Amino acid sequence: MITLAIPKGRIFHDVLPLLEAAGVELFESPDLSRKLIIETKNPDLRLLIVRTSDVPTYVRFGAADMGVVGSDVLFETATDGLYQPVDLNTGVCRLSLAIPKEVDYYSLIKRGVKLRVATKYPKQALEYFALKGIQVDIIKLYGSMELSPLVGLSDVIVDLVSSGQTLKANGLVEIEVIKDITSRLIVNKASFKMKNDILGKFITALSSARKG
Ligand code: PRP
User: Fold this and answer.
1) Tell me: the pLDDT tens digits for 87-97?
2) Measured between alpha carbons, how far is 211 from 37 in angstroms, rounded to an integer?
3) 154 pLDDT band (50/70/90 cuts)?
4) CA angle (128, 55, 156) in 5-degree steps
5) CA R_g for the chain
6) Which residues pair with 167 in a beta bridge?
7) Band of the pLDDT at 31, cuts 50, 70, 90?
8) Among 77, 78, 75, 81, residue whose Cα is nearest residue 66
9) Cα of 166 to ligand 1 centre, how many Å?
10) Residue 159 CB–ligand 1 contact under 6 Å
């Protein structure tokens, strides 16, 4: 038996066609069911439905053999004990710096203002501003980042952008792309050794199904 930890929502919908192309057929959709363990028609494979940010934890501790997770989350978490054999090239988006459109970002920087940065991604944000030599205070948020500069909680945000609609709807503009983000397959190193045959076949099937 092998298990794959995967979040519901966008990541799941983007990865489902790849799973299907790799021969995985689900007995039920996680969107319609409240079950957190989803059986597949392959008696050797189960899906575990977990929060995106929890996927690396399930896989590191061996509670799942494999997981699908965005590289945004992977960069923020410990990845010891994990292999990252396949960039699935799905869930494509970017981690960007954005600011209210009426604020002149470059003049703030020139004046040496210490920026208040709202983000779910403190490690990547700190790394980015440190490389630029810009002083920041990080304000960790868990969602609705675009709201924070509108109500004075932060000056800028570092957040995921996909279509750009959320930024636009809230009067923010993208200043710079910090990182391109995709979904990755991660595999527990011990599982990979112990279940090499079955995991190897699954990884190969998924790699052949991925685009590009
Ligand atoms: C993500 C991200 C942005 C939005 C970007 O939020 O944090 O808010 O999607 O997508 P867009 O560019 O296509 O508008 P999500 O919907 O995952 O919710 P969250 O605010 O809880 O993170």
Assistant:
1) 999 999 999 99
2) 27
3) very high
4) 30
5) 19
6) none
7) confident
8) 81
9) 7
10) yes
| Atom 1 in ligand 1: residue holding the nearest Cα | 160
- Among candidates 212, 187, 193, 196, which has minimal Cα distance to 3? 187
The tokens 């965005």 sit on which residue?
A: 70
Q: Which two tokens stand for residue 172?
A: 């923010």
For residue 21, which amino acid is it?
A
Task: Among 12, 119, 161, 163, say which to mutate for ligand 1: greatest number of ligand atoms within 8 Å of CB.
Answer: 161
Q: Is 204 helix (H, G, I), strand (E, B) or coil?
A: helix
CATH architecture of 2-91+182-211: 3-Layer(aba) Sandwich (3.40)
For the domain 93-180, what is the CATH code?
3.40.190.10
Q: How far is CA 72 from CA 12, 59, 94, 127, 145, in A?
A: 16, 16, 9, 13, 15
Beta bridge partners of 61: none
Q: What are the boundaries of each domain within the chain?
A: 2-91+182-211, 93-180
